[in-house]
Amino acid sequence: MAFVLQTFGGLKLVDPEGQQVAYPEKGLLLLAYLLTTKDAAEHRTAMAAFLWGNEDNSVSLVNMRKMISRIKLRQKELGVELLSFTNSMILIDRLSLSSDMVWTTDWDMAEPLPQLSKLATLMHRSFLGQVGCQSGEFYGWVAEQKDRQNALLKALLRKASRSARSEADAEVLKDAGILLLGVEHADSDTLQLLVEVFHAEDQVDHLSKIIERRSRALARGADLVNARANRGMRETAPGAGVHARPASMSESGFQAGSEKIRHQTVPRLVLLPPSDHTGRPDNRFLAYALIEDITIGFCAFNSLQVIAHHSAVQIGHQFEGRNDFFERHSLSYILDSRISDRDSDGTLFVQLVFFPDNEVVWAERFSLNHPDLVGTRHLIARNIALSVSSEIERHEAARIYRELNPAAYHSYLVGRRHLNRLTLPDLRRARKEMKTALHASADFAPALSSIARTYSKEWLLTARGDIELLKSAEVFAMRAIDARRNLADGYREFGVAKLLQGAFDESAEAMELAETLGPHHADIIADHADTLVHCSLPGKALQKIERAIELNPLSPDSYLWTAAGANYALSEFETSLDCIGRMADPSLADRLSAANWAMLGQRDKARVFVRRVREANPNFDLDTWLAAVPSKEQWHKDLYREGLKRAGF
């Protein structure tokens, strides 16, 4: 059996027994590169430039000699010669090594669906992960591999779309189609393929607008960067330091640097909640809501990965173990803030720290006076973007408040404070504040989608089955979509409202759009996973919720509850119980716990949870409750009913 080089989800070498083995990182990069060459060989000088750049050829060759010695020693320990060396060449033994870089080989197009599913699964993970290589040759090679990867995805999708038969086949096609939507340059040929995949012949205009919006955002971003480059970045905020472009750099040099940045691993950012040195509740609430809102806004950037607000709040209140958390989750940048009373209205001091070197790369102070909040949000977003990279994909959601009425934004922030508390009085207070925001700005999309959320949550809390609440949620979600079609929240709330009404296909489609527009928004991905559970697609749901947990490591209970439900539907009852056990309040899932224990044959344990459910809700009726819980497939309903019946309900 051969060793395996894994390149998706991190770069590592696995031995024939399936165990990861140590190997020099730059040796792993050599393996990856040489597997993509025609002759399985390359000159030493070329590989030295690939690994260390062309700045000092003599230094690169010295580094290469040292690395070759380390590789030879490690290969002797492993008992395998994956790489061999002559005075001028480096060669790879392809018989001793396989790889997940599937686009480098000729796939069997006679079975396109399984191959498409495998490729899509790989592409959901980061290619190479974080590696210590920053040469232009490396970035160019990575770009080439991603182009080949995208080309194979498109070819397999086209071939598979002609042979798909079942609903499971259709899900594979849709998943690949969503991935293809993320490709920057979607031509008319790609658009037509997506129309066929999504059976959306009557929605060509809608899909065209999605792709056109992405193209326009990229064009606007390029125009903005070039304009700043021509002015020598004179308006960059003080403190940007080495991240600002020197005025002497040529435009071609700047664009080349941008190309390098574009192909780096996506940096991860956490926005910590502000510390309060004033003790003034109004300032504290507004500053917290502002930081949360900035976090959500950054989720729309494909070139930046943001730790979800829930995790940021929890780690923000912990001082011990904070650095371990940052290292464990590969965080590059920390946005730290504190509230002070330097003026009568209070101020918010914000600084961006490059975590590996503990370097403050940007800092600024903002007034918490209400009319300034819109400008504050935009300024923070702009300066962080400029500090992290020279070119960030300028999605519309990154600038949503530029022309907004400050009074509307203030009411919206106050409303969000109430929306975070799931009680009926708080939901209604949130709705009142959001409607006040609409009086100031009738097409304020975030307020419209938030009102939709209040109605859906009220339907869940009251449990009366009031269809008018869901209809209201649907109406406000559609108004949010009409106001700003490029924001994810409107589609998300429309999907939730449709799910609770049992419109599974409409809900799933809306959630796919929401996740496409907010690719790193953990809560949206989690809501999408919940929808897939109710659509009786637990395997897909589990993949989604694992991605949400990756982005929001200190996950709220709702994520774990969704994971538990997906595992139950897969008959993974012990895993389901483990997910419930990790919840802060496991009692929320007592019915599911009872069903799990019953299906494991532990009826005594199941009855403990049955008693707890009946104590909390003496009028609980199994048939009435099962009728209210949406599940698309009968087998799914029957499995849940069986577990609850065995438990004693």
Automatic annotation (TrEMBL):
SUPFAM superfamilies: TPR-like
InterPro entries assigned to the protein according to its UniProt record, in alphabetical order: TPR-like_helical_dom_sf
Gene3D superfamilies (UniProt xref): Tetratricopeptide repeat domain
Name of the featured protein: Membrane protein
